[in-house]
Amino acid sequence: MAAQLDEFHHIDMSRVAVSFRQTRKRMSCGLYASLTPLQLPAGQTHLIRRGRKWTIQRVKVDGREMLYVLNFYLPRFLDLCFREKLTTIAHELLHISPHFDGDLRRFSGRCYAHSHSHSQFDSQAEHLAQCWLTRKPDQSLYGFLHLDFLRLQALHGRIYGRRIASPKLLPTE
User: Fold this and answer.
1) Domain residue limits at 62
2) Average pLDDT, rounded, for the chain
3) What's residue 110's pLDDT?
4) Is 45 part of a structural domain of the chain?
5) pLDDT tens, residue by residue, 3-16
6) What does the pLDDT average to over 74-93?
7) 14 domain residue, yes or no
8) Residue 102 included in any domain
9) Residue 1 counted as domain residue
10) Residue 34, strand partner residues
């Protein structure tokens, strides 16, 4: 999706770690996915808070430093319908800064993550997901998204994935 849509042309997926988290309960409410920026606002690597200098913990995958961690919450994410899964992926990609500097896309006002209208943000994500589908991407890229968690498990056995711990702010001095 990131490679085929102009709205995501700035995203280098080799710098986005994909991680999985297990949900505690098998419920339809709660997080389906989240995006964690690995730099501070405007791509800064340090900040000063209460007179101390801080940095965010670095995340490396296969020796390469990541700028974002994209988490999918299982089985909740996989139990969504196909259209909602694609919309969720587009939603999280929309959070990536157009500068691809490790920060979030920020909107003005107090609702900086989703703009003044969360529903408008979600509508844009749904539109982008549908645009991606109209480009007829190779089914092998997304075919598994047609299956829910239990069907995937029945086909492949246990489901494994990389889990990356949430990065922490660390003092530098």
Assistant:
1) 6-171
2) 91
3) 73
4) yes
5) 999 999 999 999 99
6) 96
7) yes
8) yes
9) no
10) 71
Task: Out of 27-36, 144-153, 161-170, give the one with best mean pLDDT.
Answer: 144-153
Distance (Å) of CA 6 to CA 22, 120, 135: 32, 19, 12
pLDDT at 173 over 90: no
Report the 3 state secondary structure along the chain. Answer: CCCCCHHHCCCCHHHEEEEEEECCCCCCCCCCEEEEECCCHHHCCEEEECCEEEEECCCEECCEECCEEEEEEECCHHHCCHHHHHHHHHHHHHCECCCCCCCECCCCCCCCCCCCCHHHHHHHHHHHHHHHHHCCCCHHHHHHHHCCHHHHHHHHCCCCCCCCCCCCEEECC
pTM, rounded to two decimals: 0.90
Look at the chain and report how many structural domains it folds into: 1
